[in-house]
TrEMBL record:
Domain of life: Bacteria
CDD domains: Cyt_C5_DNA_methylase (cd00315)
Lineage, top ranks: Bacteria, Bacillati, Bacillota, Clostridia, Eubacteriales
One Pfam family recorded for the sequence: DNA_methylase
Name this polypeptide is given: Cytosine-specific methyltransferase
InterPro entries tied to this protein: C5-MTase, C5_DNA_meth_AS, C5_MeTfrase, SAM-dependent_MTases_sf
Record GO terms (molecular function): DNA (cytosine-5-)-methyltransferase activity
GO BP terms, alphabetized: DNA restriction-modification system; methylation
Length: 313
């Protein structure tokens, strides 16, 4: 079968990009968020992107694909959220994946989510997902991987990757990628001698600046911002990039450069997620939307390696 992918909850296309880099073509993608769709179209030319609520789509009308990929909404399972799980309408969207899988019968299902998915609700949530995939006739492999250990990306980002195969022999042959040597630290991406656009710098009248000015003093690390707390990250790593970076109470990591205290730029955040240099945002979306999109995306380099391993079985 041709190496094709159908993408659900496509976001800005991090998973799609990774599979494309591993030799797959993207047959179609589905995303409901209008701002994400603008970014997706800006970077994927001639794409078959369906801008719609997944619940309104009949999968029988879509072209069948070898791989069904989905980074389904994680807010319901994240330790940073309320952890309402399947009691949250976003958590229930997982069952839409089952509806598509039943109709399309792909050889492989690729899923990505927060690492807390395993422990959520004392393991009941993960068991529900596992049992649903088994009920559909799939054999499961899963593992939590950290971006800095498997993606050569200096970000503290743990995510669970679930690979489901229709063929048990392929499932048994599949091997998750080996750890790779981290050859880059955060300063590889941060040019502290370059003045960035004013929008990134904290103003002295900002509440966050008043908190950060006595803490963000070093030029060799990135600082995590979480609610009212600002803390340095050790070993020249970047903290986990989250969707809350785009909220009104900004949670974007901070650095001190030669010109002041600033947030990581959009380009730096994309670099920490492993996106290529030619990937960027259209000028038709807000900077807050862009930050949110980055936090909701994936570590591209890890997904690419997993896609390559799938391609080999």
């Amino acid at each position: 079968m041709e190496k094709t992918v159908g993408s659900l909850f496509s976001g800005i296309g991090g998973i799609d990009l990774a599979f494309n880099q591993a030799g797959y073509s993207i047959s179609w993608a589905i995303e409901n968020d209008a701002a994400c769709c603008k970014t997706y179209r800006h970077n994927f030319h001639n794409c078959n992107l369906v801008e719609s609520d997944i619940r309104d789509i009949d999968p029988e009308k879509l072209v069948k694909v070898e791989v069904l990929a989905a980074g389904f909404p994680c807010q319901s399972f994240s330790i940073a959220g309320k952890q309402r799980g399947f009691n949250d309408h976003r958590g229930n969207l997982f069952f839409e994946i089952g509806r598509f899988a039943k109709a399309l019968n792909p050889a492989v299902i690729f899923l990505e989510n927060v690492s807390n998915l395993i422990d959520h609700d004392s393991g009941k949530t993960f068991n529900t997902i596992h049992n649903k995939l088994v009920e559909l006739g799939y054999f499961i492999r899963y593992r939590v991987l950290r971006a800095s250990e498997y993606g050569n990306t200096p970000q503290i980002r743990d995510r669970i990757y679930i690979i489901a195969f229709k063929d048990i022999n392929k499932c048994e042959k599949f091997i998750f990628p080996d750890p790779v040597l981290l050859t880059k630290n955060a300063n590889h991406y941060i040019a502290r001698h370059e003045r960035k656009p004013r929008v990134y710098y904290l103003n002295e009248t900002d509440t966050l600046y008043k908190t950060a000015k006595g803490i963000v003093t070093r030029h060799d690390c990135v600082y995590r911002v979480y609610h009212e707390s600002v803390k340095p990250i050790r070993n020249q790593m970047c903290p986990t990039l989250t969707a809350s970076m785009g909220n009104r109470n900004n949670q974007c990591p901070l650095v001190r450069d030669d010109y002041g205290i600033r947030k990581l730029t959009l380009r730096e955040c994309l670099d920490f997620q492993g996106f290529p240099k030619d990937y960027y945002f259209p000028n038709t979306i807000s900077i807050n939307d862009a930050y949110k999109q980055i936090g909701n995306s994936v570590c591209v380099s890890i997904v690419r390696q997993i896609a390559s391993q799938i391609n080999q079985v």
